[in-house]
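[step 3/7] fold_predict: job queued, chain A
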Amino acid sequence: MNENEILSYCIQKKYITAAQAKGLFLQYHKLENPKDFFSFIGEQLSWKQDAIEKERQDLMAFCSMKIQEFQNKLIDLIRAEKIDASQASLMELLFQKGKIDSGFLKTFQNGPIQNSVFQNAQKTFLEEKDKPREEDPDRTADNLDGEATMDDPDLHIKMGEKEIKQIDCYKIEKKLGSGGAGEVYKGIDSETGEVVAIKMLQIKPGKESSAAFKRFSQEIKVHLQLSHPNIVQFIKWGIQNESPYIVMEFVDGISLDKLIASTGKLPARRALSLILPVVSALDYALANKIIHRDIKPANIIADLKRGKVKLADMGLGKMIETSGITLSQEIMGTPKYMAPEQITTFSKVDYRADIYALGATLYHILAGKPPFDDKNLFNVMRLKMSEMPMPLEQLVPDLPVPLVHFVNKMMAINQEERYQSYKEIQESMQGILEDLK
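[step 4/7] structure written:
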């Protein structure tokens, strides 16, 4: 993570003053064997014990967002065959240690880089970063006596913004969550009392806003095509204070990733009963020429009280062209669950990518962990392009053999070796469930 970004963020959030930031910056660079800058700053926030945990969490969320942005740029370079996965892994590590920033990636934009050239560029860049820093009033980190500035438009933080209390006819009860693209609120219709979830896009200055708005518009288009009991229901959309929003059905349940985190792996019958409704939802979506592209445990919500399962987050959903193939200029999905073809190609990504991801999700809830459970994003990508995950039967020895074969077929590396229809998947699942009675 870039030191300037972390310090500027802390100043904007009023965790530290500009003078304290400058002192911390100088203190860090006097250390003989410094740890990563994020950890160093986290330790130094201890003078505010009453709010330290919240500050750490906020800072961690900010750093995670910047790391994700850097990873997305690396993924683009991998797909363009300008770097390989091992180079990307090293650059991700250097970025997290604060040794390089996004500017380093410009080295690779003109074409593939051989290992020797890569190493020379890396060595030169690191030597430059390690040179004694001269006082320069134009540098953000060295100009912390005044108000901090941030060059990246995505880093601008609205200070003193009033808490949102009303969106359209909905009274806001509480914030449910937030991410890089926007925030999600729980609201109540002032007239009918209906409880809803409202996703509001955060418009920020710069080129990223147009891409975010385009994706938001795509999500609306996808929702307008769908109405299914196992898909979170779209209600309406609108714009408030130049920020577009989507009103959705509120599902009072728990996502499968949180369910597994709290209970551990699930028995075979229960796992299949949670996944079967999702198969129905995906079959319906495909019949309406839509693929999801981001199937994962976090996007499947179980309403345990009512016994319902809902597929959520159609933000990456794509309407299939007449050719039956969806083209993309960027990687869409979550690496631990996405299909190999979503990583390696610009084309021929179709509904079978959703089948792979659903198989990876089923693997997770049966084993209690994802199929490729590596913290290094690029190791995950490299492995899944050529290898199957650890056999389920080794992690859960008492699983029925037909169920193991079923998951393996869903997760076949080659699209042609997977199930070719959701009807096939439903029939296989129902047969396995019959045997489990």
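[step 5/7] annotate
The longest strand covers residues 170-178.
Residues 113-117, 124-161, 322-329 have pLDDT under 50 and may be disordered.
exit 0
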